[in-house]
Design a protein that fits this description.
Chain lengths: ~230, ~230
DNA sequence: TTATTAAATGTCTATTTGACAATTAATAAT
DNA sequence: ATTATTAATTGTCAAATAGACATTTAATAA
């Protein structure tokens, strides 16, 4: 039997930065840590990678366990592996960022884990290097959202342009002209206008839209710039 | 003493996809694997993450050991963690892609490791999931290079526009109009024209350029699109 | 009927893009 | 010395896009 001799072995965990949008502000979902050290402190939702699963599997499992949700948008971010990042024992953590529809979560509400939404700009201090993870995830979200139509993942199936607009402003922490935004977003052909209106936000009401799934899948890699025609590439 | 009870522990490795450019084609640097299993098969250069180092440290160490080069452009790509990806023992690997000036490497040439450059499109089959890693790295390189001025890392300090042009074409596997390319690349203000000419490629010779380090650092995050003024953001 | 509020839409200019061809600077050949 | 050759460099134009800016519209409330 071949062996890799005496190389050191480490724990491997996943941590999920879960983003949501309440219609006004960008939020993240935090939990009270359930084990020592730092028990009962706020942290990202995470867990160890089991023997029979990949890190991706583990992240999905953790997310399912703590939010009750399946099939959410989940993307590997990066590995955090400083030797001393966990004071107890060397643990590498694979960071994932997830985008979920905050209302779906509220329906499921598997509240065994004391999960709670926090405003991204007004969140408690987190354990270990989780603060850094959140900062990195936010940056990555912004970057990615500038090029790919992923923010829809945080909205209900039916949504309005004004909702989308606010979400874009939140994520990018900037004001965007409504007229130009509207023009751009509709020019992507990703949206299908519905007959129905959302009357909650105003007297006039705003038309609902839904994603054109077909176009969405075809253009999930869209919106590039420097290289001609790269828009049609991978 | 607190412990994380009986969670499983794994080996953690790094693997580096090293890209280079010989003036005509994109290449990757491969080595003959030095340990069982699959000894003497071609593979990416990699190694285990030691007890006192981060994955980033490990990747730099491996790169130094096998190429003699320090301070090269190195970026974490993603984690490969399928339970069965290594047949001997569960090993997670953090993939890195590196961009190096192929000529610098040839100077150093620590040839103890039977490293060899291969055309990206004409490379041997690699061990384990290394083929997938190369495919992923290539995609990521293309993606990143469309938005960030990183390809300079594969050229000498002094380079010409035609060299840069060929490199962009290679990486993107497409033809780019010389006039439009020239216009775009110079409009970035990242290049400083030198008095000297490279006379090797033609009778007329092509002017050398160098990077404007200051602009480069300031604009390393540049070239975005959907969000207005995001060009000046992070 | 009018006031109010937010949604939806329109216009103009400047810039950028993409398609396309002519000129220039050097060396090699006659 | 003149001409041929080769690749580098530069230029033009029309179409598309971006960014700045204001008005109209559809509903409810007064």
């Amino acid at each position: 039997m071949i062996e890799y001799s005496s190389q050191p072995h480490y724990l491997v965990a996943v941590d999920c930065i879960v983003f949501g949008f309440d219609g006004e502000h960008l939020k993240i979902l935090l939990v009270k840590r359930g084990l020592e050290p730092e028990i009962n402190k706020w942290s990202l939702m995470g867990g160890f990678v089991g023997a029979e699963e990949s890190p991706d599997d583990a992240a999905n499992r953790v997310l399912k366990k703590m939010t009750g949700l399946e099939g959410v948008y989940l993307e590997q971010m990066q590995v955090y592996g400083e030797p001393k990042r966990d004071p107890i024992e060397r643990t590498l953590s694979v960071g994932y960022f997830a985008l979920i529809d905050i209302h779906k979560y509220e329906e499921q509400l598997s509240d065994d884990y004391e999960a709670e939404w926090f405003l991204i700009n007004d969140r408690p201090k987190l354990i270990f290097d989780h603060n850094q993870m959140v900062a990195d995830a936010r940056k990555k979200l912004r970057y990615k959202a500038a090029l790919h139509p992923i923010l829809f993942e945080m909205l209900p199936k039916k949504f309005t342009i004004p909702q989308l607009h606010i979400l874009f402003e939140e994520v990018n922490d900037t004001k965007i002209d409504t007229r130009n935004f509207s023009r751009k977003i509709t020019s992507t052909k990703l949206l299908i206008k519905l007959d129905e209106k959302d009357k909650l936000g105003s007297k006039k009401g705003a038309f609902y839209y839904k994603l054109d799934k077909k176009e969405y899948k075809a253009n999930a890699q869209a919106f590039l710039n420097l290289i001609p025609n790269i828009k049609t590439q991978g």
